[in-house]
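User: Hi! I have a protein structure encoded as tokens and I'd like to know what sequence might fold into it. I'm fairly new to this, so please keep things simple.
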């Protein structure tokens, strides 16, 4: 990449980083790729749901240019005095597998993606809480389809709820969540108790409320 193009990219990275850092006090490599327009937020969600093998697969630019952007991000972070905070990225699937970022799978490259840069103005305790929050496994989402006619890509069955996988919709039995009991919406107390007491639960995308408790128990 020519010097002028590097400068232009560095400016775009800086603007994207500032926009992400200001409201949240931290910024990630994913924020940068989305902010400069190389990565669609919807593609990030598919990756989060385990429907994409690695994040770079859905970035709209080649790997060398991605590397240039990440180097610019690292330089900008150092100039701002931001602190490194390693963050776990776990898929929004029942298996909770660690998400992969790069085609190569190189540990150093993976680490560069998953390391957030945090404002030094935050206290150590706040940084710890932020790290815990951003590393937390995302909530599982069970979908109540508007079209009742759908087929599980694994077993050929159907049901009232499904989870989306890369090949298509899957029933709760096939994803290992058929032991969960659907709970009615509009009960905030029950919602909080389910989330606090159940090792596993899922939210309904229609109601955006926790929809299930382990082994059919609302606790």
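Assistant: Happy to help. Inverse folding works backwards from shape to sequence: for each of the 219 positions I chose a residue that suits the local structure. Here it is:
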């Amino acid at each position: 990449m020519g010097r002028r193009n590097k400068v232009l990219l560095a400016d775009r990275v800086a603007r994207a980083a500032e926009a992400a850092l200001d409201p949240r006090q931290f910024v990630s490599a994913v924020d940068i790729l989305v902010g400069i327009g190389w990565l669609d937020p919807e593609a990030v969600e598919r990756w989060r749901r385990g429907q994409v093998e690695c994040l770079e697969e859905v970035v709209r630019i080649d790997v060398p240019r991605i590397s240039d952007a990440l180097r610019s991000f690292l330089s900008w972070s150092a100039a701002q005095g931001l602190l490194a905070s390693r963050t776990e990225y776990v898929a929004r699937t029942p298996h909770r597998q660690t998400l992969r970022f790069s085609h190569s799978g190189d540990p150093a490259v993976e680490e560069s993606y998953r390391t957030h840069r945090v404002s030094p103005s935050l206290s150590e305790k706040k940084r710890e809480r932020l790290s815990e929050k951003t590393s937390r496994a995302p909530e599982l989402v069970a979908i109540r389809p508007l079209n009742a006619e759908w087929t599980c890509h694994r077993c050929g069955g159907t049901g009232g709820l499904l989870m989306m996988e890369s090949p298509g919709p899957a029933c709760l039995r096939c994803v290992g969540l058929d032991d969960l009991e659907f709970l009615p919406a509009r009960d905030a107390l029950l919602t909080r108790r389910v989330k606090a007491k159940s090792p596993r639960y899922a939210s309904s995308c229609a109601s955006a409320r926790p929809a299930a408790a382990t082994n059919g128990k609302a606790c």
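A useful reference point when you look it over: The first helix runs from residue 3 to 24. Feel free to ask if any position seems puzzling.
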